[in-house]
């Protein structure tokens, strides 16, 4: 079978028996959610100007959304087991719609911070439920199905932030959030209508297993290995860098590199647009060369690009460096594949939840810490610090097993 026939067969398998509309709905919800999360860095210059916020406080705003979306993933997975993924995903989209309405309609600093926290909570309800429902629907094609949702997420991060930024520049930053509310309500209705109910009894049993002491011990034993601890640390430091970079990159391009907010938002969208291409290549590299070689390949370029970023000027040079930095997005496909291969099937969902929640929660401190550095007049030096942290990630990756 040639590659084109293989791709055609994979697409047919995803669409067969009416499952295509379920996948499209679930993936669209994910794309809108992560696209909304990445709209915050694009709208941050407008919010800072409106409320005269320091970079540290602005960083805290971004940290809040990341912290909320990290802390709720394990509870979100347990809720999905006990109460059905359809309910949990619909609730997540609905919570984000309400939260964005609060931010857009009230628009004072307290409402912005409270609403942002609610956005993070809504985001946290979706990821694990998305994986488990697709696992049920595509027992033989889960890799392909999750690949579609990941690609849709990158598309959302490429399209939604510049669109929100355009509306903010043309009308008001509140409308940059407000235009998303109807889309969330529409997708919440589609998820409710399209995603099937799972077996409640099976969900209850899964939930009981997920929180039993015996299961907790099994998870701890499996995650205590040197390689698993090293992988978790690598993931944490990477997320610290990634969240710090994405939180302030548009603001940096506006304040330091003198780009307009609209152009800065477009350059930021390029960061995720390149990721649409990088992730499949990174996943294929993992399959062929293993964890260490493939991860080093996608991380070395960003080290040099982050190191020279403060010294360069000019739109097209910045575009080129942004594209090089974006290769680090391929690490997600590599680390998640490695974790899925390494964690035993009987505890895979819980183990993934523990690793992802731990790394993302610790990494969420990045934006506020980076904001403190920038507030003290070291915006350029902040990116040199991120380059140094990436060197640490590369060094830790080199200690991993070859396969």
TrEMBL record:
Record-level GO cellular component terms: plasma membrane
InterPro entries: MFS (IPR011701), MFS_dom (IPR020846), MFS_Efflux_Transporters (IPR050189), MFS_trans_sf (IPR036259)
Gene3D superfamilies listed in its UniProt record: MFS general substrate transporter like domains (1.20.1250.20)
GO terms of molecular function: transmembrane transporter activity
Major facilitator superfamily (MFS) profile domain boundaries: 22-403
Subcellular location field: Cell membrane
Main location, first listed in the record: membrane
PROSITE patterns, sorted: MFS
Top-level lineage group: Archaea
Keywords carried by this UniProt record: Cell membrane, Membrane, Transmembrane, Transmembrane helix
Membrane topology: Multi-pass membrane protein
SUPFAM superfamilies: MFS general substrate transporter (SSF103473)
A Pfam entry, by short name: MFS_1
Transmembrane segments: 21-43, 55-75, 87-107, 171-195, 227-249, 261-281, 293-312, 318-339, 351-370, 382-400
Protein name, UniProt field: Major facilitator superfamily MFS_1
Lineage of the species this protein comes from: Archaea, Methanobacteriati, Methanobacteriota, Stenosarchaea group, Halobacteria
